[in-house]
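cache lookup: miss for this entity combination. No prior model stored, computing from scratch. Input as submitted by user K.M.:
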Amino acid sequence: MSTTVPLLQTRHLGVRFGGLQALDSIDLEVQAGEIFGLLGPNGAGKTTLFNLISGVTPASSGEVLWRGGAIHGMDANRIARLGIARTFQNLRLFQSLSCRDNVLVGLHRHARLSWPAALLGTPLARRHHRQLLERAQGLLELLEIGHLGDQLAAGLSYGDRRRLEIARALANTPELLLLDEPAAGMNPTEKEELRHLIRSLRNRFDLTVLIIEHHVPLMLGLCDRLAVLNFGRRIALGTPDAVRNDPAVIEAYLGGQP
Amino acid sequence: MDSLLIDASLLQQMLIGALLGLSVYLPLRCGQLSLATPGFYAIGGTLAALLSTRVAALGGAEPVYPLSSVLLEMLLAAGLAGGLAVGIGRVVLRLRGVYLAIATIALVEILRVTTLNQESLGGAVGIFGIPQPFLDPEGYALFTLIALALVSWLCDRLERQRLGRAMEAIREDELAAACQGIDTDRTKLVAFVLSAVVAAITGVISAHFLNSWNARLGNFDASITTLAFVVFGGSRTWAGPVLGGLTLTALPELLRPIGDLRLIVFGLVILVGPLLLPQGLITPERLQRLVRLVRRIPPLAPRSEGP
């Protein structure tokens, strides 16, 4: 595409679970500012790819480059502190914490304060804490759950939980946001709202978004570029139009011609 | 003093119980079931017993053991236990759940058996004649109360800031916590070390109060008892283990009039407590409700003092 260093790049990335080659030699380049989609049938390896990028699962082969520097093999917390935040397909909120506290945990890398000051509750520490609370409230409001700050995460509706997870991920002020099936369980209206939300978040925070979603029309309408995975291999890559007409994609989704 | 239900001696033991409860609570706040507290308690106690009986310079010539020496012992015990906890924690904190519990029980047993077989550490007989910094139990109770207030205050501050939130996040979901940029290994280690330090300084106080120290004071039974403090009181905020430690230490003594039946009643309380209150007596939500309730009362006070 361009000559600049891609924000995120994978080279020959692969992972084996016992006898299963879950991902096989995946090459991807995600440019800064892109909304990049990952499509593919169940079990294609999309979430596994997220796990490799975010450091949750170690790669068996190949490399992950962040701004040209290798990050594979780093712990998940170090990768998060580089500015890569993610949500989870099966929602991993801190259930018995309030929504506000969930977002405050997301603000972890910004809550920098010397511990004596924090311990003694100096005026500086109190101001710092107030700022954190304001940021958390701002993020909750951005995701339209500002009124739920005191509620426990466990008591939220499904859609609100998805929103809270996005708010928590944004609290990290990531450069790259990995969204794993954010529209799962949403009705068509909510999906349409989500599409606008992701676009507006991208513009507002200068985000790069890597998104997994099964809802093909949503993905075609939202993404700048798409990659399609099947059985751990990348079978297509390109703009929504190119991917839509790719014979390999049609075969993966609808089966081969007799 | 005799007419009171709780005398200073019992109060002292209750306060010790509360401190040990806090020591178990700290790792549990990040979901780490560590039963090492009695081990570090024994390290503190043994160190205090050895230093105060063998190092003449600490005791001076006075009949009352100087308080500054006790504070010095606490400092040394905290350093020793904290240092050991860093080394041990790096290894055992790789384990999770019940495996961590078993590893820490093993640690407690190793320390106990070592002390038991090492004449220089007191051996099977123990160490007697530990000098007294206070002449009456009231003095001890006051000193321990100050220590408990300080540790509770520190825990309260901790809970309100970054480290405390990170600990809770790890308890809720370790993987998700790591993905928020929390160094989970380091956070768990910090909690483990803090737990060891609290247990060790408690051991120092206890050694002087008990006047003698032996290997049986830090054993597997103590692991379970201190864990019961937290399970009964609640493991989500510092007030839980404090209340649990106070009540469960006092209960067997208060029930003494009913004879051996007290053991059954005590067992019932420990059994029924978690059944009725799975989160323990005190949860942050209940505490908030209580605070709101108390805040509603004060307006009455100025009115009654009015002209």
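stored under new cache key. DSSP finds 14 helices and no strands in chain B.
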